[in-house]
User: Fold this.
Amino acid sequence: MTTNAIARIAVFFDGTFYSMVSSYYRHIHSRKLNLSFTGVHEFIRHCIAKQEQVDVNFCQIVESHFFRGRFSLNMAIERDSLTADRFVDQLLMNAGIVSHYYPMNENANPPEEKGIDVWLALEAYDLAVHKRADVLVLFSGDQDFVPMVRKVNSTGTRVMLLTEDVRWTDVHGQSRYINVSQRLSNESTYRVILSEEIEKPHPPEEAQIIDGLFVQ
Assistant:
C-alpha cells in the first residue's frame, strides 16, 4: 500500500460473540466495564495502521455492521428485554453501525439463532466483490465463518480477525471460556486477540487507545 492511499475498513460484528466478550469484561475481568463500539472502532484503526505501516489517518472505517438474532415482541416482553434492546440500538446508532436482526427460532428450547451467520457472510462477500473496502474486520471466533473468509480472500480483500481467547472459573467452580477457532485464525490476514492486547504493557499513547475500548 502506498502511503497516500486510504485503507478503507469495513467492520462486521458477530453480535452474540461481541455481547459475550463485552459481558466478560463487565462481569469477570478486573476492569468491570463493557466494551465501547466507538472505542473498538478506534482500536481497529490503530491496529490496521500498525499492520499496514501507514499513519492512522489513512485508515478509515467506511462501513460497520452488527448482526444478531432478535426475539419477537411478545417474547421480548416476556423476557423483559425491550429496554435493553432499545439501548443497544441507541449505542449502534451513535457509533454509526448498521444493525441487522433476524428472528430467533423461538420453537427451540432454549431459543436459538438461525440464519444470522449466513446473512453476515453474504453481506461481507457482497462488500468484497464490489470492492467497497480494502480490509474487512470480523469480530468473531466462530469456525462457521471460515468459508466466508476464504471467499473474501479470493477477492483480494484483506481480513483482520478481531477475537477473544479467555478462560475463567465461575462462582460454581465450573470452567468457562470464550475462544477462537484455529482454522478461522489461519485463514485471516491478521489476527488480534483482545485479551492479549489489553493485558500487555503499552506506551502512554497506546494505553489511551486500550482504555478507550471500554465504556468509561
The first strand starts at residue 7 and ends at 14. The mean pLDDT is 94. Residues 7-70+129-170+188-211 form a domain with the Rossmann fold fold (CATH 3.40.50). The two ends are 35 Å apart (CA to CA).
